Amino acid sequence: MSGQLAVPLESIRHCLRGVVPSQIATCSADGVPNVTTLSIVHYVDPERVALTRQFFNKTSVNLRENPRAQVVVVDVSSGEQFLLDTEFLHTETEGATFDAVEANLDAVASQTGMTGVFRLRGVDIHRVLACVAFDDAVVVAPDRHWGRNAIVALDELARRLSMCADYSQATQAALDALADLFGFEQSILFAIDGRGERLFAITSNGYAVSAAGAEVAVGVGAIGVAAARRRVVCVPSMARGRSMHAAMAQTIEEAGAGWAPASEIPLPGLDRAQSSAAVPLVARGELTGMLYLESERAGEFGPGDERLLRIIGSQLAAALAGLQADEREGAVVAGPPDVPIARSGPPIAVIYYQADDTIFIDGDYVVKGVAGRILWKLMREHATSGRTAFTNRELRLDEQLGLPAGNENLEARLLLLRKRLDGIGGIVQLERVGRGRFELSMTGPAALSEVATAGPMRAAHPPGDQ
Amino acid sequence: MVEWCAVGLLTTPSRFAGPAVCGAVRMGCGVAGGGLSGGGGGVAGGSAYAFAMVATYSRVGEGGGLRAVLDSAQVEFVHGGVATAVATRDRDLVPAVTRAFGPQVSPEGSVLSLCVVAAVGSRSRINLEGNGAIAVVFSPPTVARGLQVKGVVRELREPGPIELARAEEHLLAFVAQCVQLGIAPEAPRRLFARDDFVWVQFPIDDVFDQTPGRGAGRRL
C-alpha cells in the first residue's frame, strides 16, 4: 500500500508531530461536510495513521456513517502541506498506539494542570489511501535524520561517561555531552525518591538558575507522566498545548462545573520554551530518574527523536547506576583523619525543622527531606565530635536517616546537597575526597538550632519519604 | 425580517428540530419555524461554551427557512485573523479539505464570504462548483477556540481586488499569531496560495462551537 502513496508517510513524519494543528474533513451520510481541528496525527506504520478522538463528536458520527476523510498536515518549519485521503478502520482505546498518543496528550495536559480533563477517548486508526503534496511545487523536506551522526555522538557520549570516576562527575559530563554532541542546550537531571513518588532535580545545564532541589511528582507534568509510564514523552509545541488547555479551562470554568486545575509544579525553565522531551532513566528494570530537555524551537523533539532519546536515557541510567554501585562497594568503614574546620569566619546559623527535615543556613533555604536529614546528621556529628570526614556507607547504615534499603539513591542526594550548598555561597561544603568518602567544611563555627515537631507534620514525613 | 433569539443553555440539539433552549426569549414578532439545513453538531447535553451563550436564528430569504446569524463576538472572532479551513465533498461523499483567507461576515451576520484555496481542477474547486456544500472552521493558532459554520455556496467567482486585499490583511494577522508560537513567518505565508483563490459566498445555515472541551461540536 505504501508503495502507491505519491508521498510516503515515512518521508513526512516531521509533519506528524502535532506542532501545528491539522484539519480533518469528513462528510455525513446525507452529504453535509464537516471540518475540525486535530490535536495529533500519529504515524502508525507506512500505511496507517492514528487520529486523536477527544471532542470530535460530529467527526466520529460521520466516520461511522461514511469512513472517508481527508486530513491536511503541515511542516511547521516550511509551511509545506500534505493531504492524506484516509479511510477510518476502527477505534482503539488501549494498546501501544493508544498509549503512545495518550502519553503525549497527558504530558501536554498536565503542563497546564488539565490532567484528567483533556482525556483521550480513543485513537481512530485510518488507512491512508493517498498522500500528496498540497501543491506540486512542494519539495519534501528531510526529517532531522541523525543517521550515522547519531552513532558517532552516542559513541562519544559512552566514551565520556566511561571516563567518569564518580556519580557527580558523570552527571555533569552527561549534560555537557548532550549540549556538545546533540545540541540539547537545556537539560535537567532528576533522581527518584525512595518511594518512587517524587523526582528531585540534582543538576541542570543551560538555565540561568540551577534546578537542583526542584521537585515534581510522578504522574504530574511532562516529566512526571513520562516517569509514570516509563516512556519518552516529546512535547513538540508547548505554546500550543498551553493555549489549548487554557481555552478548555476557560470553557470548564464558564460551565460552572466547580472544577479547579491542579497546581503546576514550579520548575526553572526557559521563558520561551517551545518544545520539550522527558526521558526516563531505567536501570535494571527500575526507574532511577529522569532526563528533561527543553528548547526554544518548536518541533525540536518529535517522534523521530524518541529512539535516540531512549538510547541516551539507557546509557546514562546504566552509567549512573554503575557508579552508584561502585561507590557502595568501594566505601570504607573508617574515613580519613579528621581535619579541623576553619573557624575564622563569622558564626553560621543552621536551623533544622523536624516537620519536613528542612534546613536553613543563615536564613537561606537549603534543602529538605532525606538530603536535609543527612546534612543535619553531619553537622550534629561535627558539633559533638569534631568529625569532618564521613563515608557513604555509614549514612546507608544509619537507620535514623531512613534510607530505603537498596534504593536510597544516596549519591544523587549527596550531589543535590552539594549543589544546594554551592548555591548559598559555599559557607558550608561537602567535598568528595575518594570513593565513598566525603568531607564537611565550613567557613565558621556553626550554631545549630532544631525546631521540634511532634504533630501531624512529622507523621506526614516518615523516614523514607523523599 | 423576523428574528428569534434563544438565550440560555443549549440542550439536546437535533439536526432537524433546531436548538432547544431553556429560558428562551422571543424577540421581534415571529416564532421560529421551518427546518434547519446542514449537518449537526451531534452532541447531547448542555453546558456553557466559550462564546456568548446566544444562538440566533432568523427567518430570511424568499424561502423563509431558518438561518443562523453570528453575533458580534463571533463576527469579531471570524474577522480576527484566525486559521481558516474549508471542507467540501463530492457526489460520492468523499470529503476534501483546503485553506481559506479573508472571511467576511455580512452586516446582519447571516452570510459569509471568503477566498478559498481551490485551484481550477482541484477537488475542492470541483466540489464547490458541483454541489456547493461547505463547512468552514475558524481556529486561531494561539488560542484554542473554534467556530464552524456550514451552508451551501450560492455565489462563486474569481476574487476581486478588494477581496484579495482582505485576504492579504487576514494573512498578516494570521502570521502574527503564528509567530507568537515560534513558527517562522514563512510557514504560514506558504499556505497563502493567492493564484488558486476562488471567492465564494453562502448563507450560514448552522454554527457550531469547536472549542476543545465538553462543548465541542455543540450547535450554537
Q: How many H/I helical runs of chain B?
A: 4
Total number of distinct structural domains of chain B: 2
> What is the SS-derived class of chain A?
alpha+beta
Instruction: Tell me which CATH architecture of the largest domain in chain B applies here.
Output: Roll
Strand order in space, largest sheet of chain A:
2-1-5-6-7-4-3
The CATH class designation of the largest domain in chain B is: Mainly Beta
**Radius of gyration computed on alpha carbons of chain A:** 26 Å
- The average pLDDT of chain A is 78
CATH uppermost class of the largest domain in chain A: Alpha Beta
From the 3D structure, determine the CATH topology of the largest domain in chain A.
Answer: Beta-Lactamase
- According to CATH, the homologous superfamily of the largest domain in chain B is Electron Transport, Fmn-binding Protein, Chain A
Mean of the pLDDT scores of chain B?
71
Broad shape of chain A:
elongated
Short précis:
The complex is a heterodimer of chains A (466) and B (220). By secondary structure, chain A is α+β, with helices and mostly antiparallel strands. Helices cover 33% and strands 28% of the residues of chain A.
Structural commentary:
The complex is a heterodimer of chains A (466) and B (220). Chain A is an alpha+beta fold and 466 residues long. Chain A has 3 domains: 2-133, Roll (Pnp Oxidase, Chain A), CATH 2.30.110; 147-330, 2-Layer Sandwich (Beta-Lactamase), CATH 3.30.450.40; 348-459, Winged helix-like DNA-binding domain superfamily/Winged helix DNA-binding domain (Arc Repressor Mutant, subunit A, Orthogonal Bundle). Chain A contains 11 helices and 20 strands. In chain A, the strands form 4 sheets. Chain A has a 7-stranded antiparallel sheet. In chain A, strands 10-9-8-13-12-11 form a 6-stranded antiparallel sheet, sandwiched between helices. In chain A, strand 5 (68-74) and strand 6 form a beta hairpin. By secondary structure, chain B is α+β, with helices and mostly antiparallel strands. Chain B is built from 4 helices and 12 strands, in the order E-E-E-E-E-H-E-E-E-H-E-E-E-H-H-E. Chain B has helices at residues 72-78, 123-130, 161-180, 186-190, and strands at residues 2-7, 10-14, 18-21, 54-59, 66-69, 83-89, 95-105, 111-117, 133-139, 147-152, 155-157, 197-209. A 6-stranded antiparallel barrel of chain B has the order 6-7-8-12-10-9. In chain B, a hairpin with a 5-residue loop joins strand 7 (95-105) and strand 8 (111-117). The chains are: A alpha+beta (466), B alpha+beta (220).
